[in-house]
Amino acid sequence: MQKSVSTSSLGPGGLDLSQAFFKPICDTAPPSPTKRHTKISVIGAGNVGMAIAQTILTQDLCDEIALVDAKPEKLQGEMLDLQHAAAFLPRTKIKASVDYAVTVGSDICIVTAGARQIPGESRLNLMQRNLSLFKCIIPPLVKYSPDSVLLIVSNPVDVLTYVAWKLSGFPSNRVVGSGTNLDSSRFRFLIADHLDVNAQDVQAYIVGEHGDSSVALWSSISVGGVPLLSILERKQIAYEKATLEKIHREVVESAYEVISLKGYTSWAIGYSAASLARTILRDQRRVHPVSVLAKGFHGIRGGEVFLSLPAQLGRSGVLGVINVHLTEEEAERLRSSAETILEVQSQLGI
Ligand SMILES: NC(=O)C1=CN([C@@H]2O[C@H](COP(=O)(O)OP(=O)(O)OC[C@H]3O[C@@H](n4cnc5c(N)ncnc54)[C@H](O)[C@@H]3O)[C@@H](O)[C@H]2O)C=CC1
Ligand SMILES: CC(=O)C(=O)O
């Protein structure tokens, strides 16, 4: 296969072809050394990896994107298909290779490679299959991009974020799991739909495991800055706990539903991961519910566990965890979610 595509403008005999079209101006200076070349690598060119890559391209997030997959023909096909959209997209160099050298100098490495759930299968069930892949994927990423932020998407994402942290030797702020950033978007969509408002005006978090034991933080939901539960109480609007529980159940079942209908999920995680990449690369310091080293927060003890908490992200990865108020019931559910992940983690043997 063609290992990567060069966009050099040198023609036969070393002539700079661009000069056939543009006459150089006088007294030029080299590009400013403060203008950084930004690069994102996406490992795994399947449904999820390609949805992330295409969202990154359409949103003009970086100068270069590198794709890696174990299947060379599929990889080549995906690279060419994206390159053929060049006339409609912001200019981004797209490279692809089965060789991790293509990822050299990445700012962010997004890992999506691995097995996905079959209909009805839980995310945690994927652990052993994806653990062995991570042992081949993480070391070369560290070798070629030792200063990068690792953004883990493959499932079970919380356990694999822990695995990536262990295998990379990176400080914990530079290893982030996409976690419940997606679940929280589903949650905001369902609340917005229920209240007939815009999902972007709904602030609401799902925390804990990206999976069946996730926790909905009802106490901190606000719409347009107005706390949801207190406004319902003040206006004496009866709300049923059962209705709230039903919305959370729908969030948990969302992935199972989409997988049973189309075989996989891709578009929403594409936007979710791209929004995380934007915040990190552009040092936006936005708060996202993502999988971080959670030991010591909200009474979580007993092991090094990654799970989602609302965290502030920036150029160096995780800048801090927001001191969000949890009711005792929510904190108890969060600790129970941590135990579920730790239980699976204890079977890892790493
Ligand atoms: N965290 C989240 O919110 C979400 C996570 N996922 C997870 O993302 C993962 C990928 O899902 P899909 O893209 O739908 O699966 P897919 O089967 O379409 O793609 C997986 C890709 O990984 C590649 N791959 C396998 N071994 C590799 C290796 N050693 N090196 C490089 N590439 C390798 C395969 O060739 C394939 O192209 C799954 O684990 C899935 O559960 C999916 C949706 C949301
Ligand atoms: C598959 C998966 O993890 C999701 O769509 O939430």
What does this structure look like?
GO terms for molecular function: L-lactate dehydrogenase (NAD+) activity. NAD(+) binds at residues 44-49, 69, 130, 153-155. Its EC number is 1.1.1.27. This protein is an alpha/beta fold. The protein is built from nine helices and 14 strands. The strands form four sheets. The chain has a six-stranded parallel sheet, sandwiched between helices. Helix 3 (127-144) links the parallel strand 4 (108-111) and strand 5. The protein is globular, with a radius of gyration of 22 Å. The chain starts with 38 loop residues before the first strand and ends in a 5-residue tail after the last helix. Mean pLDDT is 91; it is low at 1-7. It binds 1,4-dihydronicotinamide adenine dinucleotide (NAI) and pyruvic acid (PYR). 1,4-dihydronicotinamide adenine dinucleotide binds next to helix 1 and helix 3.
